[in-house]
């Protein structure tokens, strides 16, 4: 059950716009027990800055448990007046997050698929719409859903290692990035880069990702923490209220689009992922991953 | 009459979205005889790649005949399961395509103008909405409608010769690029570059066009064919279904806008082009071209 | 009262689109006396080019008087067939314009705030929607509303002095740039640059502003006038009608958005600016400016 002290997820952050009028049934309800141990949260109250470290080995995949913990942790910080900004980084070497957990999308019930997808939506709505300053300190590869998390922050710093890559590579797996992944991507890199990168399912090595603006800055790994803190300080120097209203003005249109089509988007996902051809693709992909490991 | 084996143009490619619900009267009907000799189509069934070579000297202008042949050829490939991608290039030296044929817009009946414009729309709807991978191998200058064809492909490779130029130069002729030319342009180069380039009616030398993304890559002329084949192979490595759905997601909004305003757009064109002032501009322009030649 | 010869502001330029159907009460009426001495207008009838020089020391702030004079001057040129283009520059050293006059937003009546905001809207609607070629010759710093004026022109040339900066820095003052400032900014620099710059309230030194396209060109101060004239000549080489229709096609959507929400936007501004917390921020800011001076 929910750990004591975790507020119910019924308070909508201001930046969500119309989300506040959504029936509560659409919100992520922590219906299932989960272990509160996939994300380390540290809050420096003197600075007003929290760090969320993903520590779900081997690859920080976005399972239902991970997403639920992520949303609850973010919500707690959002409601904590002592916290004005969050830095997201990984405690697992060489990987930021591998994206959506394929085992949640393979061989499960349609109810499970729907619950999982609602959690993915919830993660994005909360992160892209957060009133806090959000900085991604990308210290490893970040494909698909991992890339979406980075794209949803206010600023992206990546370790300059060309072995680390980032991108929305869904097409490589035979699946399609949802429209709100696409909207978030277009808002960062523009229509043309997004069109090409999404169709090719490209994973861009850090230097290439920096070149066309997918990440804002590259640093040596040993300077990542310090750089993230410096960027956060720069953003926190602005008055919160003006910064939040400005952020909301920039992101509201894209957030509203998902809020308006949320149930439809869940149905689309469930129908698509339940197809035998897609299930087969995913099984083949998982086999490939297993062989790679052994 | 229509050559045997050419299917009627009633099958809408998936990517058109709402086009499928359009009354058939809006589609290009091959009402008139045409000679099937302005475009060379070669299909390599082992690769699944066709090449369409424009050979309508002197400048591959987009006449009604050319456009009709283009649409029928593309439709045949679209319906041919052995074909997954098309490379567009020119068999005429130094010119890719000079754009819309001005003789079709000058001194003709309003019925003719309407039929011509419908064919221009049809070309764009089929090309921009194609489910196949489309690569423009731009081996010469490509103004106006020629530029639109290149912009409508998935990828543009241009010969690096600075004497070859590309752009939507309609304003130079005293006419205005239609909104869907503009939408296609904005999707490639962004709002600001499009705003400036369209107002100035700029023709950009290949190196400049490459600099701001109007073309994706420059190559020496002797490497064009090989590079186009390599790019095509890269795009065909992706699963068709995922790539097609992704392409449709990126282009649907702009395709739907023309489909929703198609008749209105024809009427606008006919009214505009029938104006005596515009007819006069075009006559002066044609005189200039004739003098240049002699 | 209005100087003789100034036409009433009831004629809407073509590029406004739906503005023409607005009730006349929404238009800026020159209800109050103003001195016609904040802007020097020189028209070279042989070239068809006017220069508007801002000379309202110390910092060319956009007071109600300044804005009223600006709109009337621009309207006169718009209706003068001998004028096809306008160059905007400053007669005050080191500053193009400091933006909205804070004294108009502090300690005044709600009626005054509404009148002032209507004048700001009017300035932008007329400038962004102008049928003339508009070139900003930015010979000094240009924050906030000053930046908006530059962004609303067709082309921006800035003196290459890195001490001169430009940007929409509203967030620094604890206020939020209105949606149409944002729309204009996004149309020039794209969504990502705008999102970051607006949230940080960044003032970009000229070289940085040039790097990401906020200004089109940098020149040494002594070449500014000549360069502006050359750019103007390039744009005037195009047929007016085609250029105007193209400009309108690019800007109509964003202009229409304000026209459709004009009264609402005024109410939002009045409510926001009347808040005690905002008034306090502005008073502190003004105190700071006064101390800086002495």
TrEMBL record, chains A, B, C:
InterPro entries: ClpP/crotonase-like_dom_sf, Enoyl-CoA_hyd/isom_CS, Enoyl-CoA_hydra/iso. This is Enoyl-CoA delta isomerase 1, mitochondrial. GO terms for biological process: fatty acid beta-oxidation. Homotrimer. Key enzyme of fatty acid beta-oxidation. Able to isomerize both 3-cis (3Z) and 3-trans (3E) double bonds into the 2-trans (2E) form in a range of enoyl-CoA species, with a preference for (3Z)-enoyl-CoAs over (3E)-enoyl-CoAs. The catalytic efficiency of this enzyme is not affected by the fatty acyl chain length. It is found in: Mitochondrion matrix. Its EC number is 5.3.3.8. Its main location: mitochondrion.
